[in-house]
Fold:
Amino acid sequence: MKFLTDRMLGKLTTWLRISGYDTVSIADLNVEGDEDEFMLKNLKDRILLTKDRTLYRKCVKQGRDVFLIESNDVAGQMRELTRIGVKFRLVMDRCSVCNSELRKPSRDEALEVIRREGLSEDMLDFELWYCEKCRKLYWMGGHWKNMSRFLRKVED
Ligand SMILES: [Zn+2]
Structure:
């Protein structure tokens, strides 16, 4: 499953990427003109996720794959997607910021980020992942634990 998300679904977009789903947000595309029209007519290999009922109805009418998100909070939105078979889990293979695939960094790449961001060189001992586009490192740190905790809450 691949997704296109509307501007209302920023946090959900992040969680889909964390979970390994290829997810494009309309907010990341520089669409000239009407965004609803764009989402209706483009990237049709992706399921459109939207909170907009009017857009949802238009999509249904025109046979565009679409799923209406009803909940306002991200945990509720994730539960709605679980019902259509989306599995939320911590997969380290996609950048949560830009949707690019992650890979292992070279030592030089890791060091460059560590120095630029003022991180400790002890980081080199961790298992690291790297986004080439954002030049950003990912690792299973404290943030990871918070995310696991949040996921368990969503599953309850
Ligand atoms: Zn990135």
